[in-house]
Design brief:
The protein has seven helices and six strands. The relative contact order is 0.24. The longest helix has 16 residues. By secondary structure, it is α/β, with parallel strands linked by helices. Strand 1, helix 1 and strand 2 form a beta-alpha-beta unit. Keywords: Membrane, Transmembrane, Transmembrane helix. InterPro entries: DHQS.
């Protein structure tokens, strides 16, 4: 992704001593096939080493047949290190697609030096569930995948932090930008570089 354009955001030291809330939440659709695209963008543009990154998968309540159908996907797997070992290979887990995908995410976050967390939540309505979870996690930045774009105005009103949204065509919209005076110095990361849509640039 071309990162030649920049949004004028507060330039602070996100890794300053004493900072205890260095937290970025990546909100994704828990019902679709997991990809690292949104996470990768957050790691490249928002996250700095040492912060916490929470992958938040959101889905509606599922009946038992649907839950059983989705229970083995990425979102319902533990984020333990999945590197193949002789025991796993002997049991046929060494080349398991789920294990490999999980390990790819772990390795990616390890490369960027961040602490990875994952959470899956179910409920309805989804947009209220998202706001509730974000309030509980208290992040400085929230990055949404494209599945949440229909609720972007609602999130802008309800979520009191910086918000970015990835569109299906690869563009990035800045949904909300907190002013320098609104963000405690110890919570604000350095200025991200990103590709933004014409709509966001006009704002």
């Amino acid at each position: 992704m071309d990162k030649s354009l920049a949004i004028d955001l507060p330039d602070h030291d996100f890794s300053s001593p004493g900072s205890t809330n260095k937290h970025v939440v990546v909100v994704m659709d828990g019902m679709t096939e997991f990809t690292t695209d949104t996470l990768q963008w957050a790691l490249d543009n928002v996250v700095t080493a040492g912060c916490i990154v929470t992958l938040l998968g959101v889905m509606p309540w599922l009946n038992i047949p649907l839950f059983l159908k989705t229970r083995n996907v990425f979102w319902t797997e533990e984020l333990e290190d999945a590197h193949p070992d002789p025991v796993k290979e002997k049991n046929g887990c060494g080349n398991d697609v789920k294990c490999l995908k999980r390990q790819a995410v772990i390795d990616l976050c390890r490369k960027y030096g961040v602490v990875l967390q994952k959470k899956i939540v179910m409920g309805y309505p989804l947009r209220l569930l998202v706001v509730e979870q974000v309030a509980t996690l208290s992040p400085t930045w929230v990055v949404f995948d494209g599945s949440h774009k229909r609720n972007k105005d609602f999130y802008a009103k309800k979520i009191p932090c910086n918000i970015f949204m990835i569109n299906g065509d690869g563009r990035v919209d800045m949904i909300k930008s907190m002013r320098m005076t609104d963000i405690p110095r110890e919570l604000a990361p350095s200025t991200p570089q990103m590709t933004v849509s014409e709509e966001s640039k006009n704002k």
